[in-house]
Amino acid sequence: MKARLYRFPIAAANKIRLVILCLLLVFISTGQAMAQRENPMFYKELQLQPRKKYTLQSLTREIQRQTGISFSYNAARISPDTKIKVKTDRITVKQLLAYVKKKTGIGYKVISGTHIVYTEGPALKTSRKDNQKNIAKNKAKQRTQKPLQQLASNTAVKPVGRDSVVGQQIMIIGDSAVVAYYFSGGMNAGGGYGGNSEVRYQVLRDATYDYIGSDYGAERKESNLARNTRKDADGSGDVAGFFKRNTLIGVGLAADETYYLNPTAKLGFDFLHGIISYNLGSFPQWRYGVGTTVKLNDTWRVGLNVTGGGAMSNRQAFGP
Questions:
Q1: pLDDT band for position 108 (50/70/90)?
Q2: How many whole angstroms separate alpha carbon 143 and alpha carbon 140?
Q3: Helix 93-104 crosses helix 56-67 at what angle (to 10 degrees)?
Q4: 88 and 70 Cβ atoms separated by less than 8 Å
Q5: What is the pTM of this model?
Q6: Backbone angles phi, psi at 243, to 5 degrees
Q7: What is the spatial distance between Cα 127 and Cα 258, in angstroms, rounded to a whole number?
Q8: pLDDT at 265 over 60
Q9: Where are the domains of the chain?
Q10: How confident is the model at residue 132 (pLDDT cuts 50, 70, 90)?
Q11: SS3 of 23, please?
């Protein structure tokens, strides 16, 4: 009797465990079936333009517009500009996705009932006509990049005159001349159609010009080093040039609360100059001193003047 009392709870526990396990298996299989079941929208018939050359991006937008299915893909690996030519004007979504995979190698994976992710497929074999187009494009690209390649391959430093910057090649040592890249985000950056794409342009520098690569060839722009060296060659970078740029010679009228309008002359430099003025009024006098000015911007300056002097009128005696 005691043995039965102990065996009954153990058997019941095993049965409960078995039931729970079966329920879990049923739940998992049902969830997988629901996840794998396609949305009826995949069988909806699309209306397309058979003579129009779609890109992957435009075709995806057309599918989303007509069905409401959302898409995503990595634009760094799958080009949004991939050309797709549809030959029929009516086709289901599933047939169209299979057609895209056949023509471009771009596959897809259903994430949920209304979301699809494009996947990168194996490289497709190109026809002879496509190969000829690619060869022509590569030749055109080589012609565009030829000035940059010639500049990067020049490792010599040419001796030049002290006051000349023409022909100077500085720090051009093979690939080390490439000092910067320009990045531009793709049209789909952060959007629902993919990630970021980047375009790189080499920038090669020498003493005279910055050669900036672009789709239209090497653009030439005068470098800061060339501008500074040219200023030194003109005498504007030495001490004499500094004093020449800051020389101050001027005449005019000064006004104050005591002597009103006073003819004034200044001679010297912006940072230190002499001042002489003749004060008009009942007691005319010459005044002299020094001053300095500080440039605020291209229009305004602030100055500080210190002057002194004495009256020039004759002494008068007053009597009864």
A1: confident
A2: 5
A3: 170
A4: no
A5: 0.32
A6: -65, -30
A7: 96
A8: yes
A9: 40-119, 128-233, 246-311
A10: low
A11: helix
